[in-house]
Amino acid sequence: MERNSLKCKIGPSILNTDLSQLYVESQKLLDNGADYLHLDIMDGSFVPNLTFGHPVWIAPMADAGVNQYTFHIEPVANNVLSICRKIKEAGMKVGLALKPGTGIEAVRQYIDHADMILVMTVEPGFGGQKFMNEMMPKVQWLRHNYPLLDIEVDGGVGLNTINACAEAGANMIVSGTAIINSTDQKAVIASLRETVESSIHKCNV
After folding, report:
1. CA torsion sign, 30 to 129 to 62 to 50?
2. Which of 40, 112, 150, 184 is catalytic?
3. Which of 76, 128, 135, 160 is the most buried (most CB within 10 A)?
4. What's 128's domain CATH number?
């Protein structure tokens, strides 16, 4: 089993873009080097914020061409496996998200059913929060025990915090304001990528 099939992927969060210009903003991010676009769906219940208020669930997401559907395990603790199945049946990859207060033990039994684990590095709900470095042991544990797993971090990730994420073992990076508000999106994405790829390379040596 080769470790080098692990790939760095940078996914700007479009929550912070000008949503009235969503197509233009999204295309610009892809042109500037983004591997994927991260879209937050908030229901106003699990999180106190509401972005896309209409009920957007699994089938409509698949129909829209989404390739990976990540959901928080906390509000659906008794239905995680059935949701994983529905997402896969709809032709999408499965991501499982953990908010800061949720320990790794809550997701361990489901890891084999997922394509990716998302470790939230802020409380879900609002962009622009401060990165929580104390979440990095979760990432380290996952990388140590699952060398080829896609591990994503989301929240307060930018040029000042990417080192911690990369060294802990994250290979999928969601970054909102650090990319969106930059005057040179391409340079920021390239810098984030370089840092992560350097850490992946160390694992492969």
Report:
1. negative
2. 40
3. 135
4. 3.20.20.70
The structure's pTM equals: 0.91
pLDDT in tens, the chain (205 residues): 344 579 999 999 998 888 889 999 999 999 999 999 999 887 766 665 544 433 358 888 999 999 999 999 998 888 999 999 999 999 999 999 999 999 999 999 999 999 999 999 999 877 778 999 999 999 999 999 999 999 999 999 999 999 999 999 999 999 999 999 999 999 999 999 999 999 987 765 4
H-helix segments, 34-159 = 58-63, 80-89, 136-145
115 tagged catalytic: no
Containing domain of residue 150, as a range? 3-204
* Positive or negative torsion for Cα 118, 121, 125, 126: negative
